[in-house]
C-alpha cells in the first residue's frame, strides 16, 4: 500500500528520453472531444465490463473499480468507461495480458516508468482499462477524487464546467485528448486539494 504522502503527491515527470508510452500503432490522434450528458446506463456498462475482466482473470483480479467521470452520477463525461484494475505485478504481462486480449481488450499504453501503468482499450462498450500494481498511488487518488465528487455538489459542478470549457477550446483548435486533459488540469488539482483535506491527507 502506498503511503499517505505518496497518495497526496503528484508526479509530473515526463517519459525518459527516447521513450514513448504508446504501444506501436496506438498513438493518440487529433479529433473531437465529446462530453456527453450524464447517462444512467454507465454503471450497468461498468458491471458488464467488470464481469468480463473477472471471467478472464479470475483470482488475478486483486481489485477492480469504476473510476473517472462516468462513475460519478450527475457528472457530464466522455462516454468512455474508465476502470482501474490491480494485479500483482503489471510488468509480468504474461500473467494477465493474454486472457484480456482474448476477451477483446487491446494494449494501447505501456508506462513502466510511471507505477508500471498499462492501459488497454475495449471498443464495445468503449472502455479504458488501467492496470496498476498494489503499491501504485494513482488508483487511490482516482477513488478519492471519485468519492469526493459524489459527495460534493459544488465541486461536481465546478468540474463539469471545467470539462465543457476545456472540450470547447480543445475542439476549436483540433487538439488531442491529452491536450484537453491539460486544459482542465488546474481545476482538477484544486478539487484534489479539497478532496485530500477531506480524506485527512493534507
By DSSP (H or I, 4+ residues per run), the number of helices equals: 7
What profile does the largest beta sheet have?
5 strands, mixed
Q: Distance N terminus to C terminus?
A: 18 Å
Radius of gyration: 17 Å
Order of helices and strands: HHEEHEEEHHHH
**Overall 3D shape:** globular
- Could you list the spans in which at least 5 consecutive residues all have pLDDT below 50? none
Query: How confident overall, as mean pLDDT?
Result: 95
Question: What's the number of extended β-strand segments?
Answer: 5
* Order of neighbouring strands in the sheet with most strands: 1-2-5-4-3
- DSSP strand (E) fraction? 15-25%
Roughly how much helix do the residues carry, as a percent range?
40-55%
Structural class call reads: alpha+beta
Description:
This protein is of the alpha+beta class and 202 residues long. The protein contains seven helices and five strands; from the N terminus they run H-H-E-E-H-E-E-E-H-H-H-H. The protein has helices at residues 4-8, 42-57, 97-102, 138-151, 153-172, 177-183, 185-198, and strands at residues 63-67, 81-86, 106-111, 117-123, 126-132. It has a five-stranded mixed beta sheet, with helices on both faces. A hairpin with a 5-residue loop joins strand 3 (106-111) and strand 4. The radius of gyration is 17 Å and the shape is globular. The mean pLDDT is 95.
Amino acid at each position: 500500500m502506498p503511503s499517505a504522502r505518496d497518495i497526496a503527491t503528484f508526479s509530473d515527470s515526463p517519459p525518459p528520453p527516447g521513450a514513448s508510452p504508446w504501444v506501436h500503432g496506438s498513438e493518440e490522434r487529433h479529433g473531437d472531444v465529446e462530453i456527453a450528458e450524464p447517462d444512467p446506463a454507465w454503471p450497468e456498462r461498468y458491471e458488464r465490463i467488470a464481469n468480463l475482466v473477472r471471467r478472464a482473470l479470475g483470482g488475478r483480479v486483486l481489485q477492480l473499480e469504476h473510476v473517472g467521470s462516468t462513475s460519478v452520477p450527475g457528472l457530464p463525461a466522455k462516454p468512455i468507461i474508465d476502470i482501474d484494475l490491480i494485479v500483482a505485478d503489471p510488468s509480468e504481462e504474461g500473467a494477465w495480458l493474454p486472457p484480456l486480449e482474448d476477451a477483446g481488450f487491446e494494449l494501447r499504453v505501456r508506462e513502466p516508468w510511471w507505477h508500471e501503468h498499462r492501459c488497454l482499450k475495449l471498443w464495445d462498450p468503449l472502455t479504458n482499462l488501467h492496470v496498476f500494481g498494489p503499491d501504485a498511488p494513482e488508483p487511490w487518488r482516482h477513488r478519492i477524487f471519485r468519492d469526493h465528487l459524489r459527495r460534493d455538489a459544488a465541486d461536481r459542478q465546478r468540474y463539469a464546467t471545467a470539462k465543457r470549457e476545456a472540450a470547447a477550446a480543445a475542439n476549436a483548435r483540433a487538439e488531442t485528448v491529452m491536450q484537453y486533459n491539460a486544459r482542465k488540469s488546474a481545476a482538477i488539482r484544486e478539487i484534489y486539494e479539497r478532496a485530500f483535506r477531506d480524506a485527512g491527507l493534507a
